[in-house]
Design a protein that fits this description.
heterodimer; A: 112 residues; mainly beta; 7-stranded mixed β-sheet; 4-stranded antiparallel β-sheet; 0% helix; globular; B: 112 residues; 6-stranded mixed β-sheet; 5-stranded antiparallel β-sheet; 11 strands
Chain lengths: 112, 112
């Protein structure tokens, strides 16, 4: 059982480049979310989805897009990378908001 | 506004002692609370959760206490071990909201 798989684990981008962070889960969970974690800080919600075809903004959505075409996948797209987006990104999934969330291992992104 | 915070950024304990990590929240409507453990370089891992209709819940070596009167949540770890060294986050949500709010985290250091 793979759980939540994030790729890539590490990425360096130049300012202005775009890229997609991949997230896949094999637990048939309806709820998926993306967080960013900056040094010494907690997790801040970027976007979330309560099911295929449904997405919504979290606390810090600017500069990011998401889509949820299938239950399994929830990619996060950076439109035009900025140094302020240097962070560690975590994807999570759970059956509902009121049940245990499983997190991926994270993607460490550096924008130069 | 809503917020979830922690009283102590770093907690240092001796191996074998009991640890208590505290968390305050401001939303009186919060009805679901979770504790996560994050080891260095890894994603957060679910420890235990509690709903607002409970005051206490126990797991293996961990106990979560909820005091709704003062909006305070605590995580107690019995017989703390070196493997318990990590950052611990509390998170909360409430009916009608569609996302968790995380606190900024407490680092637990276990001294041998």
């Amino acid at each position: 059982n793979a759980g939540v798989t994030q790729t890539p684990k590490f990425q360096v981008l130049k300012t202005g480049q775009s890229m997609t962070l991949q997230c896949a889960q094999d637990m048939n969970h309806e709820y998926m979310s993306w967080y960013r974690q900056d040094p010494g800080m907690g997790l801040r919600l970027i976007h979330y989805s309560v099911g295929a075809g449904i997405t919504d903004q979290g606390e810090v959505p600017n500069g990011y897009n998401v889509s949820r075409s299938t239950t399994e996948d929830f990619p996060l797209r950076l439109l035009s990378a900025a140094p302020s987006q240097t962070s560690v990104y975590f994807c999570a999934s759970s059956q509902t908001l009121y049940t245990e969330a499983f997190f991926g291992q994270g993607t460490r992104l550096t924008v130069v | 506004g809503e917020s979830v915070g922690l009283h102590l950024p770093t907690l240092s304990v001796q191996e074998g002692d009991n640890s208590i990590i505290n968390c305050a929240y401001s939303n009186s409507a919060s009805d679901y609370f979770i504790w996560y453990k994050q080891e260095s370089g890894k994603g957060p891992q679910f420890i235990i959760d509690i709903r607002s209709n409970m005051d206490k819940r126990q797991g293996q070596r961990v106990t979560v206490l909820l005091n709704k009167t003062v909006k305070h949540l605590s995580l107690q770890i019995a017989a703390t071990q070196p493997g318990d060294s990590a950052v611990y986050f509390c998170a909360e949500t409430s009916t009608g909201r569609r996302a968790l709010t995380f606190g900024s985290g407490t680092r637990l250091q276990v001294q041998p």
